[in-house]
Amino acid sequence: MLQIKELVAEIDGKQILNGLNLTIGDGEVHAIMGPNGAGKSTLGNVLTGRDGYEVKSGEVLFNGKNLFDLEIEERAREGMFLAFQYPVEIPGVSNMEFLKASLDARRKHQGLEELSSFDFMKLARETSAKVSLDAAFLKRGVNEGFSGGEKKRNEILQMMLLEPQLCILDETDSGLDIDALQVVANGVNAMRDGKRSFIVVTHYQRLLDYIVPDHVHVLAGGKIVKSGDKELAKELEAKGYGWLEGEVA
Amino acid sequence: MTQPVQPSDFQKRALTLAQQRSAPAFLQTVRQQGLDEFGQIQWPGRKTEMWKYTTLRPVEAFANAEWPADDVAADGEQLASLPELDATRLVFVDGLFDGAASDELPDGVRLFSQADEAARVVLDQYLGKIAKDIDPSRRNLFAALNDAWLTDGVLVYVPKNATLEKPLYVVHLSTAQAAERVANQRLLVVLEQGASADLIEHYLSADDASASFVNTLTEIHVGDNARLSHTRLNLEHEASSHVGAVHINLQRSAVANGFTLAEGGELKRLDYQINHCGEGAELNLNGLYLGRHQQHVDYHTTIEHRVPNCTSQEVFRGIVGDKAKAVFNGRIHIHQDAQKTLAELNNRNLLTSNTAEVDTKPELEIYADDVRCAHGATISQLDETALYYLQSRGIELPQARMMLSYGFINEVLETLPHEGIRTALQKRLRQRFVEEI
């Protein structure tokens, strides 16, 4: 699904990723943990193509295609999805309009017909019920006045509608209470179908009790310094990141 | 020592035109007042503060203009394009009433030319007198011109505690004319104590309309505890020039809710002059302006707080692209006696090209010490983070730009009380941004 080779990237002249290697197979769930400033959010931003993040060297293949040949929107249509740590509020643009434009773009790319307004409404309502988001939120401005939890549920709603191949969850658990955390985790688990892959970026072991990863990686100093299975996350929870510092250098 | 005024060529022509049309004798006083005043005002130049960013060259081009022929009429196609509204519709074509295209006039609504004795008393009392006590430096010379050119108009009179049953929808259409034409449009609305009315003014052009100059003045008296809803749409095509003014006096505990939208043209200049004359009056004014190509659009608003305990809430947003230019000047003047005033003015502008220009200037002048007053003006570009968010969901950049531009004004559009107009405008403006992709 995704191969990251020796990725070096910087923002504002400051190098954040320092030769990162990571391979994600079909259907796998990888958790990425690490201290603040390790480059966890940068990874998501670089993969989705956000302006300001400059790739200096290295290569990323997404389903065999060179990711850096693709525009931001092309990556999304090819099936890459980033659930934002801080979803953006866009007053004046209705959530419904936003969701339909997104799905239309994805379906068109897949050679499918756009859904009629009626069918789309039906699908959007059903899906919002699955993430316990009141259908009234579909009519509001995108994330406008949503609480932290509502914003994250709206991200999962988008993920479920767009049915991406690779989902990157950037600290989706931050600021969530336990109920919202379960809703998010249930959404992710419902989408695990043996083919779709996930990168779950998190600070805390807690989320991984609900979304059980196949692999756990520690990102520190801009590269993966340790990899293991779900037991590694528990070890990190108990010991912190300090014991890994030797490996960063 | 005052210098004798040298009238411009347009001024001279305008005064000649004024003599060419006759008017009922009872309008003569106002006409004469306009003639005297208009002829005495120095024609504005770049150093005139009120016209600093807006050239009157498009108006000066009408120095050989004529009155329109009086046999033009709206055609069915033009009327069919108007939004569906449960309202009384009055249609004017190039400044002249088109009875065939209009609904029957309800009680309280009549043309000046058909005024009976009672209506003449109202005209005598209010016509040409609303917001007249504005600062002399901001005296509106085109309001004086409107007086001078006055031959007819619409009078809306709502007696004490009465309600104008349906909204009054006044449509003004500019058509194709062989030569340069000018048009004059005038409305006077008088709401007595406790009365209420809903007025919509809609200015548009026929598809094949040529350059035209329309000068309009709407005067509104909102009596004690009376309620006004006023919507004004300036959607004439871009070859047109329109200079218009809305003058409102608010009496004790009166409420006025205003919405205005203008698409740019050769010259679009709209002046709102609002006077808080009675305690406890409330004003809400929302506006939008849009400029593209080489259009020009200019809003000047002046709110005079003369008495205590009044509120003003003013929100204007504009989107300007290509080589267009927009001007916004929002003045709030709080007089010494106007304690406990609450006034807020917010103006936000979106520039969608490097060659577009916005000149915005909030002007607060406060002489009372116990007031709450806030103002803000911003000029910005589309939000990069929001664009990235939309793109990261597969939406192409041009469409993302369109959605954000539309969203920026849709927030204000949603405050429009008339669903039929709101829907029609949403469709029109969405289409406008789609065209710009």
Description of the structure:
The complex is a heterodimer of chains A (249) and B (437). Chain A has 249 residues and is of the alpha/beta class. Chain A has helices at 40-48, 72-77, 95-109, 117-130, 148-162, 178-191, 206-210, 230-239, 245-248, and strands at 2-11, 14-24, 29-33, 53-62, 65-66, 80-83, 90-94, 141-142, 166-170, 197-201, 215-220, 223-228. Chain A has a single domain (2-247), classed as 3-Layer(aba) Sandwich (Rossmann fold). Chain A has a 6-stranded mixed sheet, with helices on both faces. Chain A has a 4-stranded antiparallel sheet with strand order 2-1-4-5. In chain A, strands 7-8 form a two-stranded antiparallel sheet. In chain A, α4 (117-130) packs across α5 (148-162) and α5 (148-162) runs parallel beside α6 (178-191). The radius of gyration of chain A is 18 Å and the shape is globular. In chain B, a hairpin with a 2-residue loop joins β1 (88-93) and β2 (96-97). Chain B has helices at residues 9-20, 28-40, 57-60, 76-80, 117-126, 141-148, 384-391, 397-413, 419-435; strands at 88-93, 96-97, 109-111, 154-158, 168-174, 181-191, 196-205, 212-222, 227-234, 241-250, 255-263, 267-276, 282-291, 296-305, 311-320, 325-334, 342-351, 357-366, 372-380. The mean pLDDT of chain B is 93.
